[in-house]
């Protein structure tokens, strides 16, 4: 769901007609999830998969203005889906407040059952990608593979950059 209200994440968004929005799902925790409005249906699916697996998605990163990321586990791609508002990095919270971070997620498929169910749902979805299946693993990453189409990625990247730089 696209959140409306007066919290800090919303105060840091461009105008109300901007393509850059704040997503809040019942199973999302962590940092504010800023994304392209066109990525919201994918985030809603991620939220649904988390609910079915009885886990929470703890967002550590979403929309980024550049590929310069302090402390990155994996070197960000030049055409990162984060920069077009189409990617998130996350940890998974399951059970009694237990965490599946990159060290745990790297052990997939030998991860706790609720975490495996969640990741399996992402992998099985034809429109989503889990970074654990990338050539260079990025187990905390989920996106919709927008960057497979360079023109479409460039269009959404430009829209996000205008939103941030010009307030559009």
Automatic annotation (TrEMBL):
It comes from the Bacteria. InterPro entries: Peptidase_M15C, Zn_M74/Hedgehog-like. Residues 77-143 form the Peptidase M15C domain. This is M15 family metallopeptidase. The lineage of its organism: Bacteria, Pseudomonadati, Bacteroidota, Flavobacteriia, Flavobacteriales.
């Amino acid at each position: 769901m696209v959140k409306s209200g007066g919290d800090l994440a919303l105060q840091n968004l461009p105008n109300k007609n901007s393509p850059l929005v704040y997503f809040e799902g019942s199973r999302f925790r962590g940092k504010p999830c800023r994304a392209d409005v066109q990525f919201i249906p994918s985030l809603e699916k991620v939220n649904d998969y988390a609910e079915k697996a009885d886990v929470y998605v703890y967002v550590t990163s979403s929309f980024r203005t550049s590929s310069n990321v302090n402390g990155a586990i994996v070197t960000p791609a030049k055409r990162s889906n984060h920069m077009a508002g189409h990617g998130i990095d996350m940890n998974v919270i399951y059970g009694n407040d237990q965490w599946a971070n990159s060290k745990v997620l790297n052990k997939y498929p030998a991860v706790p059952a609720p975490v495996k169910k969640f990741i399996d749902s992402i992998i099985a979805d034809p429109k989503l990608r889990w970074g654990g299946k990338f050539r260079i693993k990025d187990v905390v990453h989920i996106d919709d593979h927008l960057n497979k189409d360079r023109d479409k990625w460039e269009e959404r990247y430009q829209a996000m950059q205008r939103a941030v730089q010009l307030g559009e």
